[in-house]
Amino acid sequence: MRVIIGGGSGFIGQSLSQLLYRRGHKVTVVSRHPGESRITWDEVSKRGIPACDAVVNLAGENVLNPFKRWTPQFKDEVTSSRIETSRILALAISQSESPPRSWILVTGVGYYPPSRKQEYSEESPGGDADFLSRLVKDWEAAGQLPITDHNPKTQLVRIRTGVVLGRTGGALPSMLWPFRLFLGGPVGSGQQPFPWVHIEDLCRLLCQTIEQEGSGGGILNAVSPSSISDTNSDFTQALSKALSRPAVVPAPAFAIRALLGTDRAVMLLEGQRVSPKRTLQSGFTFLYPDLASALVDLVKT
Ligand SMILES: NC(=O)c1ccc[n+]([C@@H]2O[C@H](COP(=O)([O-])OP(=O)(O)OC[C@H]3O[C@@H](n4cnc5c(N)ncnc54)[C@H](OP(=O)(O)O)[C@@H]3O)[C@@H](O)[C@H]2O)c1
After folding, report:
1. What is the pTM of this model?
2. Span 66-72, mean pLDDT?
3. Ligand 1 mean position to 184 CA, how many Å?
4. Which of 49, 139, 148, 275 has CB 3.0 to 4.6 Å from 92, enough for a Cys bridge?
């Protein structure tokens, strides 16, 4: 199969590409920068996409980049890098002579309103709680395919992922060094839900969605089964155990707010209790269903 991946040069895209290559598929990345096995967003806008079996969008400015201040300009960049790229790919699919079987938009569980009590599955409402949930609503709407004669065979799948834990990118590498220096601890109260997924499980789920015929489209939550009850404190304890280091130095909420700004601090200081109900119903099995198994795998040398 040929798979086109928008933003495929990043943390999730590189892992996904490696898995797809290992399974005998071909990958073309859509990027802002030209290169081998790449096309640029400008080329897609002008000439459309090459014939393919699946399109995945992973493009997006890093929301938690601590080196970028949370200015209106940066917020616009965070929003447009997701919405414009999704719109460009949806339009290209709708205009393609041989449209792909699946169109997969990877968004986030930030769609669901932060809550310590409420439990969410794929059917739960959301999209209007805060900046992040409105972003996910608009991002998913931008991926909607315009109705044309060409695209009835393309199924849109929206994969809402939790915090992606991996060795080479995402949040985990920056969390490891305080622990290794005996400075690790919970973020804020530590009682906020912590929805997460191991990078290998996320890429396996994406692969299953690409390869499976007649998946039916719709929404899939990419979170481990234990995410329904895991808190930041559970994560901290599991990481402490995996690294054999104490976890006694908390990162206070005021410091997180000062560093990231209120909108972004919500992402660390609050969270959602999310279940992968429909993902499990699709027949997917998680290799890393709980924090202990995931973190032992990710911190081993
Ligand atoms: N990692 C997580 O824990 C997590 C959790 C929930 C949701 N997600 C979502 O999953 C997607 C992929 O995440 P990731 O961790 O792989 O991200 P990443 O490593 O930051 O990579 C994303 C890619 O997006 C492209 N990009 C960055 N800024 C852009 C901009 N301003 N305009 C257009 N393209 C831009 C870059 O590709 P080029 O430089 O080649 O253009 C980059 O390689 C993102 O949309 C993210 O919001 C991630």
Report:
1. 0.97
2. 88
3. 27
4. 49
